[in-house]
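As agreed, record passed on underneath.
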Amino acid sequence: MLATASVAVALAAADTYVVVLALTDMMSGVGIGIDSLQRATPIISGFLLGYIAVLPLIGRLADLTERQRVLLGCLAIFVVGSAITALAVELPVLVAGRVIQGIGGGGLVPATLAIVAQLWDRDRRGTPLGVVGAVQELGSVVGPVLGAAVLAVADWRAIFWLNAVLGVVLAGAVVVVGGGMPSRPRLLPVVVSLVAAFVGWLALAAPEALVTSVSLGVPFVPFGSSTSRLTTPVGVVALVLVAAAVALWVRGAWPVLRRADLLGALLLGGALGCVVLTFAAADPEKEVVGPLGFALLPVAAVLAGLYLLHHRRAAQPLVPRGVVVGRARWALLVSLCVGIALVAVIVDVPLLARLVHTESETVAAFVLVRFLVAVPVGALLGGWSLRWLGDGLVSGVGLALTAAGLVVMSTWGRGSLAELTSTLVLALVGLGIGLALAPVNNAALADSPGDAHGTASALVVVARMIGMVVGLALLTAIGLHQYYAAVADLPDQTDGQALLDAAVVQVEWVFRGAAVAAAVGALASLALGLGRGHRRA
């Protein structure tokens, strides 16, 4: 079960990065020119929105029902989102598909971590937690490689059809290794869902043989002056059937959903969604927050305040009382710092490579591989070492190594990436970040109630993803401030080499900020306990 769930987690993680190489082709596929790159931002931020905003709810559902059922549900959502993305010829449909993909992919992580907590006791969770952390980070390596391999023989839509097929195969594997279906699904929702899927495919695919037919093409004619494939008779029928299928599934799951605190999920998910859209939709070259950021941040604050008020009054809140206590609080802080350090390396190492090492994006990406390969190795080593060492010691050492490596990286310039020492430093930073993954999850699981492991795992993932989204915006803003200051001091602002050196200064400041975040995470790790005796019984 762990192996199957881990492969599913790796597939979802790979989907986070798979659009890196396919983005321009996807833009063209929905009618967006390369000169309108900003309009394509929702393709990426939509996936993050779905991934993060629904995590607390899915984590709670993993505590209230069978984890196998949650895995199957998330895989089904992921498959549907992949198919919608593959069929999209309009930006709103493409973004909707990416959001649905994010919901399904993100929900796999807390469900898998909850399975680990269920199947292994506190003293033996280290290695399986390391495995989950390793495969999750392996996705960042596999994603671009998988995308490049598919694009070499087919178009971008084949990437998402492959995702859908793999999702179906993994769902079958979950059923087999889990001993069959967790419970027999009701017939009516299944039938309506299958009919909705078929009619939805007709609407989005719009087969030419039907569309051009005199007798059969009428249902595919858009209403009025619209050109959308969904504003057709067959499109409207598909939307109605989808709404009916969702209503039937929700009705069947209503007892569990009600216990999961839907109001709390809406409030907390809304707050997280506003934060994601504020920072993920921003153009890092021009702004810290997105175009709606100054409107969304107050809304996020209000929703967060309402959730805290609801949390105090609800009999069964979304985040059960006793979850965010003790070492779990520090685990969330450490996870946030890990996210900041991780995103700084992922984004700015290729940027530095293109500035001082190569003009090829492919070569620049291979420079990052030196780091990415080391992260899953560190995750496995970190989980394995928890047999003898405390959570805080493993995490603290890992993030201290990361901070030291980032300090060295902040001194890099022309010629640095061609040296052997750059490979060693990138591997050291990746190893350090990997070392922190399993201890953070282990501490959060150990100090949370047994019936809230899914929620605790979800919060750890949310903290790291928020660290990545917000950290990238803030560190880039700091770097850009230093860049503009360096340009202002230039005697000749048309000197191309001097401008290049100023751009390197920007990257160096991003690495300095990430080093500070890693150092804070290393210090916070001390609260996780230096010895195995610090764990609760």
